[in-house]
Design brief:
Number of strands: 18
Shape: globular
Strand content: 25-35%
Distance between the termini: 21 Å
Helix content: 25-40%
Mean pLDDT: 90
Order of helices and strands: HHEHEEEHEEEEEEEEHEEEEHEHEH
Number of helices: 8
Length: 308
């Protein structure tokens, strides 16, 4: 295609990729944007933000118990569905969506616990990479103030007591480890650079939003972490911030990014902070904040979608 060759030669291909949405797929493939949340408050926020209903022309289908709503938003074809809570559900249900629909991009919006001490409830973060903080070896003490390290465990990130974090293998076409398997050993799995650039552009255009009387901050960059744990412990929270410089933690995002990365599908994750992952005094306030903060995250996701 002559036009594309000229764009490449002029050095403007990155701009084309970001602002036309061609970050994935063959020439001529019409983008289908998956807009996802993990559980009821997040799905309610997305459906409200995008006006999802049969009366508005959206169509519903069910695949193995997962509900999918397909429609149009801002002139784009979109499909909204729930990934489920926790890593296994998120991985399975996103792969289910990818296997049954021609999804070209994944945009997720939901709530998380804030682990960066500079952030407050209501703030929104869009990390550039994600790690599993629970992907680890649990080791015995050696009786000398340390731990018995197995030979396979290389020096790595600082441990939290007996917990020694490790990376994870990601099977992906075109990558091979030393054993010849098509896998990469990653501690941080990146989101899509084009969607991240669109998010940075969107943040500058989104009108101010408030939570509990304060204007929330929306920022792009840094890392996030996830595990099969609802984190509500101040000391562990300090550790994940120190070790990964993690801005937030949740129970799905790293699995979602893992699946998208393995499938070579662009993904970006928008997380509003419903709580401080144990950094708050007293009881965790997620129950009082989850819906309102999910609505803030959905609004930010809408802004990102508009940039594509």
């Amino acid at each position: 295609m002559i036009f594309n060759v000229r764009i490449i030669q002029s050095g403007l291909i990155a701009v084309l990729l970001i602002f036309t949405g061609f970050t994935h797929g063959a020439e001529g493939v019409k983008p289908l944007y998956a807009l996802c949340g993990a559980y009821a408050p997040e799905l309610m926020a997305l459906k409200k933000e995008f006006g999802v209903s049969a009366a508005a022309g959206w169509t519903r289908s069910d695949v193995k118990g997962v509900e999918f709503w397909r429609g149009r938003a801002g002139g784009k074809d979109v499909i909204i569905f729930r990934t489920g809570v926790s890593l296994v559900n998120a991985a399975y249900q996103l792969q289910l969506g990818l296997d049954h629909f021609p999804i070209t991009h994944v945009l997720f919006a939901g709530v998380a616990g804030g682990t960066d001490p500079a952030l407050e409830v209501g703030d929104v973060v869009i990390p550039e990479a994600w790690a599993y903080h629970g992907e680890a070896a649990y080791l015995n003490e050696d009786g000398k103030g340390g731990f018995v390290r197995p030979d396979y465990l290389p020096p790595g990130r600082d441990n939290f007591g007996m917990i020694f974090p490790t990376g994870v293998g990601v099977t992906r076409a075109g990558a091979a480890d030393l054993s010849g398997e098509k896998a990469e050993r990653l501690e941080l799995i990146p989101v899509d650079a084009g969607l991240l650039a669109a998010a940075r552009h969107a943040v500058s255009r989104i009108p101010p939003m408030k939570k509990a009387g304060r204007t929330v901050r929306v920022s792009v960059g840094g890392n996030g972490v996830a595990a099969t744990v609802f984190l509500d412990n101040a000391k562990y929270r300090e550790w994940v911030f120190r070790v990964w410089q993690a801005r937030c933690t949740d129970m799905e995002s790293t699995a979602l990014v893992h699946v998208a990365y393995a499938n070579r599908i662009p993904i970006v994750i928008v997380r509003g902070l419903s709580d401080l992952a144990g950094g708050q005094p007293g009881k965790n306030p997620i129950d009082a904040n989850e819906l309102a903060v999910a609505e803030i995250a959905a609004r930010v996701l809408h802004g990102v979608l508009d940039e594509l």
